[in-house]
Amino acid sequence: MQPDRSQTRYAMFGVLGAATLVVIMLGWVVARDFRQSAEATNQLYNRFGEGLDLIDNILFETGEVRRVMLYALHTSDANRQLDYVDQSRSGEVRVRRLLESQSPLLSTARTRSAREAVGAAWADYLKTRDEVIGLILEGSLREAVHLDEAVGTAEFNRVRQALATLKAGFEADAAEQVEAQRARSARATTRLAELVLSALLLVAVGVYLVNRRNSLEVVLRVKSDFLTTMSHELRTPLTGVIGITDLLWTASVPPAQRELIRMLRTNATSLLALVNNVLDYSRIDAGLMTLTPRRFSLFMPVEDALDSVSEVAARKRLSLGYVIDPRVPDVITDEDRVRQVLLNLLSNAVKYTETGEVVIRAWASVSADGIATVTIAVRDTGIGIPEDMQERVFQWFSRIEPAGAQRIRGTGLGLAISDRLSRLLGGSMAVDSRPGQGSTFTFVFRGKAAAATPVELADFRGKRVLTVLHTGIVGEQILSFLRTWQMRIVPFEGGRPPQADVVIVDRSARDEDHEMLLRNRSGWGLDGIAVITIDDMHSEQPVLAHREQVVSIPVRRQALRDALRAALAPWTAAEEPAPETRQAFAGQALAVLVVEDNEPNRRVIRLMLNELGLSPDEAANGGEAIDAAARRSYDVILMDLQMPDLDGLEATRRIREQERSHRATIVALTANVFESDVARCMAAGMDAYLQKPLKLDALGDALSAVVRRA
Amino acid sequence: MGSVRPVLLTLLLFAPMARSVLVRQQAPPPQAIAIIVHRSNPVDDLTFSELRRIFMLDTQTWPHGRKITVVLRDKGQPDRAEALRIIVGLSEREYDRHVLLRTFQGSVNFGPRAIQSAAGMLRFVYNAPGAIGHVHADEVDGSVKVLRIDGMLPDDPKYPVRRSITGRDDEEQ
Predict the structure, then answer these.
(1) Quick one: which of A400, A350, A405, A402 has its CA closest to A380?
(2) At B163, which CATH number?
């Protein structure tokens, strides 16, 4: 889930970044347009001003030409008259230059014709003016005045009129151009405004996304913290419940109550599995699930998983077994996760199968670079899954309830977790199923290949084994073991069997074969031959002979090997059963301190230690533990991690500080099983950890390790 | 070579004197006075007598009907006196008295116009279609028309409107 969310987030910010880039580029273009538009507007106004100035100058100069000329009428001095004439002619030159000046705004179709009209009227007027000048200079003032008033004035007015027309045309042209430029500027302004709005929108979206991301991270952190805390809070009482049921199971109680205890333990274990599933879901969802690779043989997780479902399978009388290709190497990857996936698949298989068998088959291939691809198929003969529902089985909280099937409890997390774990292990998960015929879940994972642990064959090679076996998976599994161990297999065929070193009888085999063997045992010379009986877990049938070894279904390889080894060994009447765990440490001076703030849990641990023959001291918090450790040198301190006031880590640190020569073995008791928690324990000075709920066997093993070290 | 050097030195000493002798021998003809009219005036040629009648205000219109405006230099200027002496044979005072008399007689409405400079004379004639004036021949430009007098232009050696050889006019006191 985490990679998907990260990818989505990166994609989201990628798109945002690209959009920002586009806006910046557009902004550059629009800003350029806007600047050009502004410059064009300025140029337009400048030209407009220059054009108006030009027309006004022409107007002024033409007036001057006439006015100065008329001044000559008011003097009789020819020299002064000549000065006025010269001024008039200079004005004429200026007017000509103005009229000939090149102005873009005076070169439109409209202004060009107006200018021509001005030029024509001006030329006409100049002729009259020259005449008037001549008359003035010649002293014919009356004629001069008369000519000017009669002709000059009209012509001059025509010039003014033409100039007015030119000005009006120019102003109309200018107005049109200004209007066009204003429209362009308005468009540029609008685009700029839109761009600014877009940029603001992008910023807003960015801010929203950042806030949203922060909020989501807070929510995720809160959820993770919540689930971690809840797991601890749920696991703590479960510790008590499962511990107490363990103790009750070992106590002498009537059979009817044993069934109640069994149900109690089953339910508590289911609840613990549910809590574990929720924890796994939260860790996978938060991307916190990590692998702890180590070398292991595939037999271990397969047999452990089969053991876990054996009780339910036995009640349903399901055949439960496995066949692992002997060429499957040991693999280096996270064994616990492989076991977890197998357990999930097996639990489902047993849950949805009422008759028939549940079978695991495993095989592997190893690539040239030493990577093993292990495939495990879990096949059942259960109700099956309709084809249209098969795609959904690996989704979170997806529960498949085929029509006709009775409602079966489940959270819809198991297969989803298995699917994610298989991917985390470099593999995959697939399902092939037919309604009414059963399902096969194929789980693939990868890991570095290591040579398989060699099997000691010296005891068994060549030994003859008379087998009375069923044709189902149990018989197939036993025969595969015997072949691997290179034993000679002699199937019982109804008559007197050939000589054998050991007999293996499957109680689920045909009754007549079984009865025949029992009847003729002495006659066939089998009295001295040891018998290994393969039986259901809780069978109450009597044993066949005094030298009988019973191996329960599902058959563990080690159990069969131990049984064979015992059966083939020389028999002595004084043979003692293996020592039990109970009272294993009685008489040993092992000083143990239990540090646990929860009183019922403390009591359970005390009772477990009593079972092991030990009498521990107790401390209800970290402070008491430090005081107790100061008073007495303990060999073992069982330290709860989460306690009020002073937690287990801090208490451990202080105990380590006050230790002199003697060093206690401090074992953490914790429901938190994250790798980081283990690392914190070790950093604080602890030596080992036991996972809650505490089990008697695990506690015994831990104490045994301490004794061995001592 | 030794006998040549004193001769060259002698020639160098007398060279300025020789130049003045040469100049005196090549003196130009007396300066001509050009009679100018407006370029649009159809008249190209006058006899000296017609010229004299115009300046004496006896003739007051051109053949094409335009009124004749006589233009002289300002009173007191040598060019005015010279022109009057050459063209009408009167001193400046005699001519002024003549004009005054004609004015009182009512035969003229407007006497000759007086212009301060030769350039002003040219500008006046350029602007007044009926004007007739005088400038020294070397002051003429393309803005006016120069009339032939007795069929001759000022560059003709026999051109009649010309200053005396002595270069000095007899001024009436």
Answers:
(1) A350
(2) 3.40.190.10
